[in-house]
Amino acid sequence: MFLRQDTRPVKVGNLTIGGSNEVIIQSMCTTKTADVEATVAEILRLEEAGCQIVRVTVNNEEAAAAIKEIKKRIHIPLVADIHFNHKLALLAIENGIDKVRINPGNIGRREKVEAVVKACKEKGIPIRIGVNAGSLEQHLLDKYGYPTPEAMVESALYHIGILEELDFHDIIVSLKASDVPMAIAAYTKAAEIIKYPLHLGITEAGTLFTGTVKSAAGMGALLSAGIGSTMRISLSADPVEEVKVARELLKTFGLITNAATLISCPTCGRLDIDLFSIANEVEDYIAKLKVPIKVSVLGCAVNGPGEAKEADIGIAGARGEGLLFRYGKMIRKVPEAEMVNELKKEIDIIVKAYEET
Ligand code: SF4
To answer: Would the N or C end of the chain have less CB density within 10 A of its end CB?
Structure first.
């Protein structure tokens, strides 16, 4: 584990963001929130993939009203994404939302801000301040000329100041930009001076491919420095992919304890099996496992066992057959056609033993 930055622990439903807790994975629904059936179905898919907190847009009264029913049918904390409209925030709070994403400086008159803060305080609901490089306040654009990391941090401090003045401290802060170096600089600066948990994100990162690379670059740099208490990968793709990418990224840094890892070789001229399709099938199989096992899939028996030493279970191709390895030692040979099924059986045995301990 990397040394986490000390932040104030903030409760969101039954979870705590910040403090010494693991980085929490979030995603956002793509459905119309008022369409309860579609929204619940998407959230249940996200839960299965490992999403721990989910956000929905609350852009009208129907969406705010739907929160009550959605909450009854899901198992993870629900966040309302609200822009400007304090009435929608109050309705969402009344209907049982677990967290509100709203910028207090954009709500308008002081009484409106006070009403939202009072309602949040009464129900123990935190507020996420979402600074976005693309929508900085005009006074900051006038001061800095264009979005900069300093302007983003100043924007966060401005909104934090409003909440602190009302003695409200259950705050989470994000400073998103689609420009990766700008986001890294903003979060790094914020981590030095803001004591609240930081929600990491590279906004409008792009498609599954480009967005994954950009997010991994930006958030990887931050996570490796111990920055970030929760994160959302933003992709122009099925949100389940966001969760898969987030889990993989956290695994890379040893920041998740309930995920299985795949080790697979890049293949070379020694390859003896159809490794790409086998690796993909095994990756799908282990994606939903909630235990920290390592599975390796290697193309040949020459380097395979050595490369798979760290794995709990693995397979290496040999002509027409596969060699099953456990902790680097061969346990048996299986015909090529049965390799994947045999590997899955071995994975199931290890998972069962893990769950029983
Ligand atoms: Fe090549 Fe074998 Fe190494 Fe895969 S495990 S890269 S096939 S030598």
So the answer is: C
